[in-house]
Amino acid sequence: MRIVYCGCGRFGIDSLNALKASKHQLVHIITHPEKQAGRGRKIRANDVEQWAIKNNIPFTTIEDVNCDKGMEIAKKFAPDLIVVIAFGQKISAEIINIPAKGAINVHGSLLPKYRGAAPINWAIINGETETGISIITLAQKMDAGEILAQGKMKITDDDSFDIVHNELGKLAAPVLIETIDKIEAGTAVYAKQDNSKATAAPKLKKSDGVIDFSQPAKTIHNKVRGLWPWPGAAACFVSAKSGKKFPVTLVKTKVADESCKGRPAGLIDANLNIDCGTGSLEILELKPHGGKLMNFKSFLNGRAGGEGDFFVPLEESER
């Protein structure tokens, strides 16, 4: 089949490689325009545009796929199917109806759970031990289309967003090709979602990353895993001696224990663990704001810190 691909994120790169290697024709890619990125705020092409250039696949960058130009592209390349992965734009019914087989989307959750822009993050934040990908038809309500296929994977207690994101991208590729083959053969099964079981995975905000150490250590650990690298789970280290404050982002943590101690939340104990509402948290790696990644002991040594120092939530001005 002739396929037009819409996407901009690296989540879809494994699927693009699989499409290119398949019997199907990847005739065109629609992606977002170049934008500023990184510390230097240099103009940078997204991962999909870079892939298209490297693999000599024609592409178009466009702000709004539903404009006249987007409609012209969809008609010009006469696709049998549109594949959408990590695109970040809602596609109109007019464009969806152009291909004979419509449009399908690869979503990073086991739908109907975690509909929305950040399904992988919220699955980790909520402490899920299993997640997966769903291949669905595009619908006018976000992530509510019919399910054609799913693939599952386990989430371990050490898995961060990046790990789960990359593994799901790999998992999606063969499932996508198998699904497209079934669509072409007319053997695909379209199953409606149970909307009563739908849960939300809204777009992340910086405020989602504020750590409240009165919460259980396990809850904070899951937040750290689910929010790195953006927006990051952040707090403010306070030196008990000097009163100086140092905003930091926690990068890697471990639950030291899950029992109640009754000590003030956020206090650093004799083992250099952080007391929480329930249990304590070991900080393995953090990033001072404006600084580089470092282990916690090195951070403390550089600030003459240790037992008795503490963490407090970030103020709005410190985020």
Please describe what this structure looks like:
- 25% of the residues lie in helices and 26% in strands.
- The chain is of the alpha/beta class and 319 residues long.
- It folds into two domains: 2-197, Formyl transferase, N-terminal domain (Rossmann fold, 3-Layer(aba) Sandwich), CATH 3.40.50; 206-318, Rossmann fold (3-Layer(aba) Sandwich), CATH 3.40.50.
- The strands form three sheets. It has a seven-stranded mixed β-sheet, with helices on both faces. Strands 10, 11, 12, 13, 14 and 15 form a six-stranded antiparallel β-sheet that branches. It has a two-stranded antiparallel sheet with strand order 3-4.
Q: Helix/strand/pairing class, anyone?
A: alpha/beta
Low-confidence stretches: none
CA-to-CA gap between the ends?
A: 48 Å
CATH class category of the largest domain: Alpha Beta
Strand proportion, as a percent range, falls in 25-35%
What sort of overall outline do the alpha carbons produce when their principal axes are compared? Answer: elongated
Biggest beta-sheet profile: 7 strands, mixed
Strand order, main sheet: write it out. 5-2-1-6-7-8-9
Kindly report the CATH topology of the largest domain: Rossmann fold
The amount of helix comes to 10-25%
**Number of structurally distinct domains:** 2
Look at the structure and name the CATH superfamily of the largest domain.
Formyl transferase, N-terminal domain
Number of helices: 8
Rg on CA atoms, Å: 23 Å
What is the architecture of the largest domain at the second tier of CATH? Answer: 3-Layer(aba) Sandwich
Order of helices and strands: EHEEEHEHEHEHEEHHEEEEEHE
Compute the average pLDDT: 95
Strands, total number: 15
